[in-house]
Specification:
3 domains, Phosphatidylinositol 3-kinase Catalytic Subunit, Chain A, Domain 5, alpha+beta, five-stranded antiparallel sheet, 15 helices, six-stranded antiparallel sheet, about 425 residues
């Protein structure tokens, strides 16, 4: 089979929206294979005139009767694919070799319940047998029965990093009896809450410390003024993250569209270094309120620089698409002291050229001037705003202590935070 049907969730049900076909049945090239995307007639007809971005399968694909040919898979399809530990589990389950040809089969069969409001038709299989679920402690302990159940039901969704992370992440749902099930295994009317559950990337002490500090890091981000979701819950080496792309309302579930920055920037690849400049230009193009969202994006990078969250690749930032038509950056996610990771994770997205001559130390004056040219954002206004962030940055050590970040980590970052605050002060025109 060399075609898949893409479904989108809207107004309480799934709609067949588009088809993606490979040219020449080129499975061996993986997501680098040529193909074409087209919307279905029944999907286009009632939506073509309004052509809302939130109704598209991807921001870059307006709703019409055109045939979109591409040298690679459309980048939004990569958002649906399992990675890291999840990919390994699916390969084993489907009996596939670990090579490029396996990506097509993973797209066909392993994309039934990804984050966001897209899925591949046929990949979502109704669970034929009711399961009583698990209690929270069994999940925390990674009970063997739970792991086997989660893998069998496709709850294992990703590794901890963009390319080769092997820490399991599970998409789970909690029912009204506080029992936990795989995403997709429970009817919407029985669902109380949707969760992502994370475990340490490895067995070293640093791996555990990274996860331990992720919940307090998130509260620091909240205090700093970054857009955040619900507080994270840490329990014995398990991190419970309440999902913001699922909203339970009176027995029904609203699935919000979620598209990574990598996808919206048309990057059909994993692990490529990202450009903050290009990301800001993309925000200007698609966000409902570009001015607000560019400032939100920059504020996140200030925090990443100060607290050394180096794992800032293009799939760790996303647009959230609401039924109302509003498009904005999603709440922050995957924000942690990743510089501590034993594998050594370099800063993945950076400011272009002179904007970041020294990795991790942006030249904010240059950034402001570049963004005025690339996005039309007034450089004087941006420089004033940047300098106004300095006092809040200076208070970060105090915020970190208050939010429960390990004191050793606070002490290790205090000097760096002072440097970041000084550079922001120097941005004042």
């Amino acid at each position: 089979m060399d075609e898949v049907v893409i479904e989108i969730y809207s107004k309480g049900r799934w709609h067949k929206a588009a088809q993606f076909s490979l040219y020449g049945k080129d499975y061996g090239s993986g997501f680098h294979a040529k193909g074409s995307l087209s919307y279905g007639f029944d999907y286009v007809l009632p939506r073509m005139e309004e052509n809302r971005i939130v109704d598209r399968v991807g921001c870059l694909y307006p709703i019409n009767f055109d045939l979109y040919s591409s040298e690679n898979w459309p980048a939004f399809l990569l958002d649906l694919l399992p990675t890291g530990a999840a990919r390994d589990t699916w390969l084993k389950s489907l009996g596939l070799r670990d090579d490029e040809s396996s990506w097509w089969q993973l797209l066909r069969f392993a994309t039934g319940n990804p984050p966001g409001n897209l899925r591949i038709a046929g990949a979502a299989v109704e669970t034929p047998i009711e399961h009583p679920g698990f209690d929270k402690q069994e999940i925390v302990e990674k009970n063997v029965d739970f792991i086997e159940y989660a893998e069998a039901n496709g709850a294992l969704v990703a590794g901890a990093s963009d390319v080769q992370g092997q820490a399991p992440k599970f998409l789970l749902v909690e029912d009204h009896n506080n029992r936990w099930h795989a995403e997709g295994a429970l009817p919407d009317d029985q669902t109380k809450c949707h969760w992502l559950v994370k475990f340490p990337r490895g067995k070293k002490e640093a791996d555990h410390r990274v996860l331990l500090n992720e919940a307090p890091y998130y509260e620091v981000a909240r205090a700093f003024g970054v857009r955040t979701g619900a507080p994270l819950e840490y329990q014995d080496d398990a991190l419970f993250v309440r999902r913001f792309d699922r909203i339970v309302i009176k027995g029904s579930v609203e699935r919000l569209g979620m598209e990574s920055m990598a996808s919206v920037c048309d990057i059909s690849e994993f692990g490529l270094r990202g450009s903050h400049n290009k990301n800001c230009a993309t925000i200007r193009r698609f966000a409902t309120d570009p001015h607000r969202e560019i400032l939100e994006y920059i504020k996140r990078d200030i925090l990443n620089v100060a607290l050394r969250n180096t794992d800032n690749h293009g799939r760790n930032t996303a647009f959230l698409k609401e039924p109302s038509g509003n498009i904005a950056l999603s709440p922050l996610y995957d924000f942690a002291p990743m510089f501590m990771d034993p594998e050594g994770i370099p800063r993945a997205s950076r400011w272009d050229a002179e904007g970041e001559r020294e990795i991790g130390q942006p030249d904010w004056v240059q950034v402001a001037e570049d963004l005025e040219r690339e996005t039309g954002f007034c450089s004087t206004e941006l420089r004033l705003w940047l300098s106004d962030q300095a006092p809040t940055v200076e208070r970060l050590p105090e915020m970190m202590s208050y939010c429960g970040v390990e004191e050793a980590l606070v002490e290790a970052l205090t000097g760096r935070i002072e440097v970041v605050a000084k550079k922001l002060q120097e941005a004042r025109p």
